Amino acid sequence: MPKKVVTGNYAAAYGAMRSKVAFVAAYPITPQTFIVEHISEFVNNGEMPCEYVEVESEHSALSATVAASATGVRTFTATSSQGLALMHEILPTASGMRLPVVMAVVNRAIAAPINIWVEHNDIMPERDSGWLQVFCDNNQEVLDMVLQAFKIAEDKRVALPMVVNLDAFILSHTVEPVDLMEPAEADKFVPKYTPPSPFLDPGNPVALGTLVPPDYLQETRWQVDEAMRKAPKVIEEVNAAFAKQFGRNWGGMTENYMTDDADVVLVAMGSAHATAHEVVDEYRAKGKKVGLVKLRFWRPYPTEQIRKIVSKAKAVGVYDRAVSFGVGGPSFIELRNAAYGLGVPTIDFIGGLGGRDLSLEDIRLMFDRLLETAKTGTVKREFVWINTRGVEP
After folding, report:
1. Tens-place pLDDT, residues 315-368
2. Is the confidence at residue 1, as pLDDT, over 70?
3. Which of 124, 129, 362, 367 could hold 91 in an S-S bridge, CB 3.0 to 4.6 Å?
4. CB of 246 within 8 A of CB of 190?
């Protein structure tokens, strides 16, 4: 199909339709609302044979989605910010029950103060909920990753829920040319869902959500941990299969650019990657050996890949669109853990919070600081707040 100009929200909704989702529970919240509105239109127009349920809150949306998934059907929902916070109680339920729910999260700042623009502080607290998480940097990737998410989550080696993250407004409401694959193409990649063992079986009734004593709970936690550790292999396989069929390779766990011989490397997530990519080209043209890593998967974290890249660099920076107060950016904390013992200087750059623009000049400042650190071997400031009034970068 020829490319069409669509928003990131439309791409997410279209991906759910092309994945033959059978159940959607929806509750609106800016800037996610258009995802479930588009799905509602698909259902109303007869394009998407799906049970569409309007509920009274995000807590109910995920509760209904989890329950539907347990019956053995493919399910999808979407949320953002405060809505995700309200879902928090149910997130570990989905992973603990090993249900392959897929959810789009349009990343938005958490109140207070109230802000509807991009920030990653809504999804970062869900790091340990047992959900796989991928961050997209353009609308085509949003569509493609919704399809891949179902294939990854439903793989019996994983059997865990998955979040597809897209930045508020920068992707959700911005239009880009997107290849909207034909139904036959999507069907070939994501065939009809056949659950391995649905809980709803009249011939073999079971009770769900019962009390589990200490004799059994720990093993369930180990099983989720093992599934998360096996997920990278599945992610790479699904990425390769998608690239073979559609000709688009998103890189698997990470997407690396000019890192093989780089003196300094910047790690970024989400839409910031595209901005940084332009500066890498600019600096390479000037003979400066800089590289870029798009951290695609937040969970499972690509420890092996990150450690390999860091070990070859003289300095590494992380751009965080979130902050763990008093500690640093969540992504920086994870990178420092992955790079433990390598002795490579690291710097955390925090910025873009609440939708503040990330400019080319901001990226240049980051690379300049990293190049200075690589030259001197000394970190001037470990935590750098970018473009913040009254704060020296």
Report:
1. 999 999 999 999 999 999 999 999 999 999 999 999 999 999 999 999 999 999
2. no
3. 129
4. no
Tell whether pTM > 0.70: yes
Q: Name 24's Cβ contacts closer than 8 Å, sequence gap at least 6.
A: 16, 36, 39, 43, 50, 51, 52, 53, 65, 75, 76, 77
Tokens of 378: 């000394």
> Strand, helix or coil at 244?
helix
Tens digit of pLDDT for each residue in 53-97?
999 999 999 999 999 999 999 999 999 999 999 999 999 999 999
Domains of the chain: 3-246 (3.40.50.970), 254-385 (3.40.50.920)
User: Apex CA 51: angle with CA 45 and CA 52, to 5°?
Assistant: 70
Q: In this structure, how many other beta carbons lie within 10 angstroms of the beta carbon of residue 212?
A: 12
Residue 99 has which token pair? Answer: 């249900």
Chain position carrying tokens 């390598």 = 342
The closest alpha carbon to 367, from 229, 238, 235, 267, belongs to: 267
**Token digits for 234?**
């599945």
